[in-house]
Amino acid sequence: MKNKLQRGVTLCSTVLLFGTTITVPVIAETTVEFSSTSNSTSAVSSSLPPISQVSETVQETTDESVPEEPSVEEVETSETADVKESETSTTDRRNAVAATLTAEIKNINPEAGSYDVIIKATSPSGIKEVKVPVWQAANQSDIKWYVAQKQADGTYKVHVENKYHAYHTGEYQTHVYAYATDNSYKALSLPKTTVTFAASEITGSISNQTAQTFDVTLTVRGNASGVKKVEVPIWSKPDQSDIKWYQATKKSDTVYTVRMETKNHNYNKGDYTVHAYLTNHDGTKASISLGKVSMTPAQSTDSFDIVTQGFSNSAGTYQVVIKNLAITGGIKKVQVPVWQANNQNDIKWYDAVKQADGSYIANIDLKNHKGHVGQYANHVYVTKNNGEKIAKSAPAPKFTATGTLTVDDSNQNKVKLTLKLDAPASSIKAVYFPTWSEVGGQDDIEWLKGSKSGSTWTATVDIAKHKSLGKYTTHVYMEMPDGSKTVIANNGKFEIKKGTLSAEIKNINSEVGSYDVIIKASSPIGIKEIKVPVWQAANQSDIKWYVAQKQADGTYKVHVDCQNHGNHAGVYATHVYAYAQDNSFQAISLPTTTLAVTTSKISGSISNQTAQTFDVTLTVRANASGVKKVEVPIWSKADQSDIKWYQATKQSGTTYTVRMDAKNHNYNSGNYTVHAYLTNNDGTKVSTSLGKVAMTNVPSKPLPNPVVYSQLDVSGSIGFGTFASTGCVPTSTAMVLRSMGINVTPYSVGLYMHSIGQYNTMVAGASGLAVTSAVAHYGGKTTLLNSYDAVKNFLDAGYSVIAMVAYPYTFYGSTHAVVLHGMSGGNVYVTDPYGGRVTGWHSLRDVWNNRSSDGYDLNAGSAFIGVNYK
């Protein structure tokens, strides 16, 4: 069973842990539960409270009296009684009185940022673990929970180091938690500890010196940010020309080392200056001078001489000769490292070859050094049999690449560049002539690759590609085998001047009103366009800018026509503008030209002929008064009874068109005569005959909508059947014939069909032959339509179709005749002679699919019979 104690809001509460009183905040309305079967110590939560809740003030219990543990009966009785806070505290203290916890801070080293925490802790059940949380930041962002180590004397110890706390300086907070084996714990807070840091420090010494090396050992201490790097600059020359910054190698937290080698300093002898620099992560530095180290080896009796010979700049070769060798202990090998690049990326170690006279020779070839030109460096290393090396710097030649550039701009369109090159053959991969115009900076630069002939390299500048006049610059670069380039010449200069322009007027036709302008123009960068403005009106209201066309002979031509200038007669002005590719231009004015413009002219042609139409295209030239109208009379009858005067439509300044349609000529077939007339504003006329156009297959004119009749309106009988029940075929035929203007009635057509034995003679009703015979008898024409497409095309042409159909376009079990006329999409308009029963729009495909298959209906050859004019 458990009792629950409700607590109100308080600022803090005193809790006894392991007999130690610690002040902690209490959360409002917190329920604290106490077990009736355990002592008060175990009733305290064993979970670790937040550090921020632990007060710095720790009060040790002074009451030495410990009440007796209550009996079971007493505990049970207490379950039903009100529990007082003082009684709870007493019970807690009584059960934890045997536990102790003390601690102190020792060995504070403010400069190193460290201190020790010494802890004494006991518990009747034994100590399980001691933890020490330490932090400096107010928000505990640098907190570390140290685990104390038990010492030989029974105490516990923690060593606090600022490196675990982001190297923070200032006041450090230290708490101690001692955990018993039953997971209960006791805690206390120690006084704050102030940690500061001394400045960064670096010290060092020189050791292990040999003839060519020595070691630098450094002891460093960084600041709170920690060590970023340690560097050791060493040099032997007063001007520091051989300085090298060695990056020290870390051996431990505070020890760094560097090994100096004279090979990094051109094997110089003398005093070597040694400095050392410590750089912290925050950028601060500390440094020290370790003085000078003398690198003057004992006098050696070994000697040799070095000679450079056989230098050839063009071949790119020379020899290094090592002679007069006096080497104790014998020679193992002789090597000659050679390079030109400052970073030695082209270095090659040659093995010198021993000669009969005891000397050694190394053959140096520039091709082994990426073809580089410039000052070369040679060293010689003699390795003795005992492994000792003797080094000397040897004289070395300088390979050069020079040239003389000449520019020939006598041809302003194609400028020739010539370079006479003196360079090692193995250095030359290619030669380039970068060339650009002064206009626009280097936006038109072109790297011209040279062509070789012996030692001469040439390139041609195509000025048209640069599209600029004026001053030009050319440099010359030699590309070496590794792709690097060196400047050979930078003094190429030339100037491109404007071209030429001339023009003359030819082929003047004053009466017609035309002339030609012939132009000669050139530019080093090419002609982009030539324009010729021409006008007659003083205010230039009739100006036209002609674009000249280039001719086969290289000249340019413009044809001036007065029709482009309102057919004006009088004095014409002509200018010429020649534009270069850079849009610069030259301009000239030509002498004036007088045009009378008295002649008119008209010509034409026939095109786009179909069965029913053709086009007439006319080119007209008016006189100075201008065009009033253009007419085209067309006819097909010899007596011109079907003549029509078409008014031509203007398409452009000189072009007019007409479309002839046979419907305007009663759909006549035959030869159509075509004339054309131009009438000027002053009343003068010119004409032309375009001959005859054969129109032999002109379609018949479309039929009007059928006249509507109903067989039910006709009384009486013909043959052995009543007209109302059998007269669908004569009624349908009469509807079509009547629309053609033929004066018939359903009954009169029925009488004719009966007279030829095709209606109400052998069977009730009329046959297909009744239709074809009656239409022919009354002056019409029939066409048998045996496919869906044939029916559709016939209807699309505007004609009518008499269709023999079956159900559902008539009563089931019978056939019927209807009239089809007019299409809309895929639908046809059906006129039903049986009182309009199925009259209306229907799918032509459906009507076709339900055509009659009766032999009597088909005796003309088809169930669908087209009707049009004869």
From TrEMBL:
Residues 36-93 are annotated as: Disordered. Gene3D superfamilies: 2.60.40.3760, Cysteine proteinases. Residues 48-60 have a biased composition (Polar residues). This is N-acetylmuramidase. Residues 709-834 form the Peptidase C39-like domain. Residues 81-93 have a biased composition (Basic and acidic residues). Residues 61-79 have a biased composition (Acidic residues). Residues 36-47 have a biased composition (Low complexity). InterPro entries: GBS_Bsp-like, Peptidase_C39-like.
